[in-house]
Amino acid sequence: MANAKLKWQIAFSVFLVALLCARIAQSCDQPSTVREATPEEIRTFFKGKEMRVLTFLGYSAAEYENKAAMLEQAARILDAYDPKATIVNIGATPEGIGAVYATAKQRGFRTAGIVSTQAKENNVKLSPCVDVVFYVRDATWGGFIPGTERLSPTSTAMVENSDVMVAIGGGEVSRDELIAARRLGKKVQFIPADMNHEIARERARKRSQPAPTDFRGAAGAVF
After folding, report:
1. Which residue range is the domain that position 19 belongs to?
2. Residue 86 per-residue DSSP state
3. Cα 118 from Cα 130, distance rounded (Å)
4. Quick one: 35 and 10 in the same domain?
5. Are 52 and 85 in contact (CB under 8 A)?
6. Which of 19, 61, 115, 132 could, after both became Cys, cross-link 92 (CB 3.0–4.6 A)?
7. Radius of gyration over every alpha carbon of the chain, rounded to an integer in angstroms
8. Whether 24 and 98 share a structural domain
């Protein structure tokens, strides 16, 4: 009798996990609306939604040393917001901080992504969990335009359309966007996180650079 009950409990648990996975897959399997837009057009889009825009910044290809911890931090942030009144915005790609898209969709948030046309030109794939993606014509990936403290078109769109910006670690683009957002009086939050150590070492090796010893990222060195 006890064995039968245990088998039933195991079977039921497996069913619940399968159901949850199916729901997650379904929520992240809808075709994204993808188009090129100017910062002004993106501003019009978000303004028309009349919802708070919560933007996550962080590492992308550099990934995270502890991705599970990053997702736990993101989940805690998300739980403080109402999915019916909030759009979660990231950089459109699935790597690194882009994994938060799936967490947001699980909680019922609408999602958006703003990314440089450099991503399209370099065939960088988009997250399947993004509802709307905006490519911004840009000669860079973002951040301050070299030699100035003016944001590139992509980062301009990212900062101007965000009500709240949360960075979990992050490189130079994240650093510059946080600095600009803080200057504009927007709500910003920085959570320290290491980039993936092995990826960082391998990148340095390919560039014939010394092995890195500081994995905080450019944002972590400032905030």
Report:
1. 1-30
2. E
3. 18
4. no
5. yes
6. 115
7. 19
8. no
Kindly report, residue by residue over 15-52, the tens digit of the pLDDT: 333 434 444 444 687 657 999 999 999 999 999 999 99
Give me the phi and psi of 50, to 5 degrees please.
Answer: 50, 45
Give the SS3 label for residue 121: helix
Residues 49 and 34: their CA atoms lie apart, in Å, by 17
CA 35 – CA 214 distance, rounded (Å): 38
Cα(29)–Cα(56) distance, rounded to whole angstroms?
A: 21
Overall number of domains in the chain: 2
Domain check: are 113 and 197 in the same one?
yes
* Token pair in block for residue 75: 């989940």
Taken as a whole, the chain contains a residue count of 223
Beta bridge partners of 37: none
Least reliable range by pLDDT among 1-10, 73-82, 143-152: 1-10
The secondary structure of 60-90, three-state, reads CCCCECCHHHHHHHHHHHHCCCCCCCEEEEE
Residue 143 corresponds to which amino acid?
G
Among 142, 131, 1, residue whose Cα is nearest residue 60: 142
